[in-house]
Amino acid sequence: MTDTTELLAVARRAAAAGAAVLAGRSISGTAGHGLETTNKGEAGDWVTAFDVAAENAVREAILSERPDDTITGEEHGTTRPAEPSRYRWSIDPLDGTTNFIRNIVYYATSVAVADSDGVWLAGVVHAPALGRVYSAARGQGAQLETGGQTISLSGPVPGRTGLILATGFSYDPLTRADQSAGLAALMEGFADVRRLGSAALDLCLVADGTFDAYGERGLNEHDFAAGALIAEEAGCWVRRPRLRSPLDGGPSTEDRLAAWMCAGALELSGKFPL
After folding, report:
1. Which Pfam families does this one have (predicted)?
2. CA dist 156 to 57, 142, 162, 212, Å?
């Protein structure tokens, strides 16, 4: 039987493969110049050739070691072998594409794996421009590797003042307007708010204690899969949207835009609506 340590090792190698593609981006010239971009529907919801190349690299890394696993990716959807194993991978090759286009350093490759019951077992968020690799395996805690050091993560600092909330906003104008209207109520008890543009990194920054809480609704599974497990294994209270299906992935079809992904200190759990 595959253990979580083995799955985490595969996730590390796969995320590194995707991050290596992203690290090949030139930072010279005008932000976004020379990048092949298309729009996925909503204004600002961009995809680049790097998104596709990074997903291909992640998929190849996983399949080279685990050819019988199912994979769900942002760019290529869900692919399942003829005789699938009981494991499914969820990958976001480039979380923070707009940041990537504009030379803003908050972007990452996110890789996570769940079993056939929908239990998340291992996850990695690799941020090449930050030089940070966040990782976790179920029951083994969460770590940050940076500058040659490995740091165990334990979430927000208990009892501190000046609490910071992280959140994000939808590309859909109507949803974004609704989110903006509710921001004041959501921020009650917090001193300030941040919006980095990468849900995966927002969750990791709750895990390492930079942020005190994170809440956003309307996310896709690949946005939160790895980061939520990392926050959870750092000791944070976490609530994920319900999956449509453990085999197919994706949030519940009942109301994806109403489903919240949130994480933070336990005493903040009541801040986020159901």
Report:
1. Inositol_P
2. 34, 13, 12, 5
